[in-house]
Amino acid sequence: MTRAPSQTPAIDLRGVTKSYGEGPVLDNLDLDIAAGQVVALLGRSGSGKSTLLRLLAGLDHGVTGAVTVAGTVSVAFQEPRLLPWRRVWRNVVLGLNAPEDSRQSALAALEQVDLSELADRWPLTLSGGQAQRVSLARALARRPDVLLLDEPFGALDALTRSSMHALLRRLFAEHRPTTLLVTHDVDEALAIADRVLVLRDGRVRSDLLVPEISTHDPMRRQALRTTILDALGVTPDERD
Amino acid sequence: MSASALTASPRTISSPRADDDVAGPSVIARSSHPAVPRWASLLGVLALWQVASVTKLLPIDLLAPPSTIATTGWRLARSGELGSALLVSSGRIALGLLFGVTAGVTLGLLSGLSRWGDALLDPPVQALRTLPHLGLVPLFILWFGIDETPKVLLIAMGVAFPLYLSIHSGVRQSDPKLLEASQVLGFTHVQRVWHVSLPSALPHALVGLRQGLGMAWLSLIVAEQVNSSSGLGFMINNARDFLQTDVVVVGLVVYAVLGLLTDAAVRQIERRALSWQGAQR
């Protein structure tokens, strides 16, 4: 499923700088992401990756430079952030401007993450993985042009996480939203993304395409992994 | 727990073993819990009180025995005297709650939801709240006379302040992460208030309402003691003049029962409105 990147970028940043007190968090950042591309944004904590995502989500202001995000944006956060006092299906469609047969669209969205049978549950009765899938269904129900994922699987166990990766790949194949996935997990990035960006000290240190073949070729994969870890500034004795 | 799972299949084969296992946990429960039921000591106190009265250890002028109180209660109920007093007092409470809840909810939401409301309303309300509102009785009598108005106002103040405080802080304590999520989900302002701020405040508001109800009943009792020509307080005051301690106690018991009833009503609302919370336990 190699994507033919279209010429119009869905996300376009030019000379974006953002500072909180001491030093810039984003330092004169240039970045464009083609429509339909799935991009993983890697970086250590404090590298500015979350700031970048919040900026694209419209949650952070006060930056210099030009930020263009084409179309509708959806976000899934690290925590599911479901409203505990609304049933699961209501959570999926709240805020959508389609009041009629909204239950139907909620069920359809939940069907995509294989959770339609939990539509009438309270969010607090869900497991972490289920809640995160509901959060994903909620993000996709908006039919976003741009999907922003902020370490959405960080709090999940390894098994649940890998089944979420498979789910995401399936959903991407169907919906093809332009996706920016913030993560600190190199393997997660390689499992999901077409392109990996490494952010360090508020700048893009490395910009790599992930050829589809690398998912089946352990040698290529290992080579990519090493390149990314180098770009992250992970020393050899820090690696597992 | 695992033990019961293990014995699940043997139980069908040999019932004596199963019986042993069933007896196990209940023995433990019995040893940590005294065999005496909890109401037994209460009954003991009533019995002692009765004995003290019969033996003249406790003069009837100071406190009537439980038996007399029970028969007096029955007599007052049957004559309709208690019923009409109850009706008058309940009417005062109802009216006071209507005004107090309306004021508490309106002011609490205004100051909780809007920055202007907070800046303009919160300081004076916080200042007023430090006044013991029952201390306002003399002023209220000067301002409003001795009929229903000061009583209803006292009750309203009793319920309004706790409700205001809980709603104000409840709205302010809305989870910023949920507010942020509602922003990226494209909620309108009204949707954000309706789906995030108000449900966040509801558990606080219900705790505030229960506190407020306690204050409301207290305010009613104080207001009716000061001056009234009808209602439970009037019945109690009247009885005091004739040393009818049994009637006084009947009145007190009725106050207590009414307080318990309104508290139970709010608990019922809590159970229904906050069922999403109960789900996690």
Task: Outline the fold blueprint.
The complex is a heterodimer of chains A (240) and B (281).
Chain A: E1 9-19, E2 24-34, E3 38-42, H1 49-56, E4 64-69, E5 73-76, H2 88-93, H3 102-112, H4 128-141, E6 146-150, H5 158-175, E7 178-183, H6 186-192, E8 195-200, E9 203-209, H7 218-232
Parallel strand pairs in A: 3-7, 3-8, 5-6, 6-7
Antiparallel strand pairs in A: 1-2, 1-4, 8-9
Chain B: H1 2-13, H2 15-32, H3 39-54, H4 66-79, H5 81-113, H6 115-130, H7 137-144, H8 148-172, H9 176-184, H10 189-226, H11 232-241, H12 245-273, H13 275-278
Helix pairs in contact in B: 1-2, 4-12, 5-6, 5-8, 5-10, 5-11, 8-10, 10-11, 10-12, 11-12
Helix content of chain B: over 70%
CATH fold type of chain B: MetI-like fold
Helix content class of chain A = 25-40%
Class by alpha and beta content of chain B:
mainly alpha
Report the average pLDDT across residues of chain A: 86
Please give the order of strands in the largest beta sheet of chain A: 5-6-7-3-8-9
Structural class category of chain A: alpha/beta
Major sheet of chain A: 6 strands, mixed
What's the tally of helices of chain A?
7
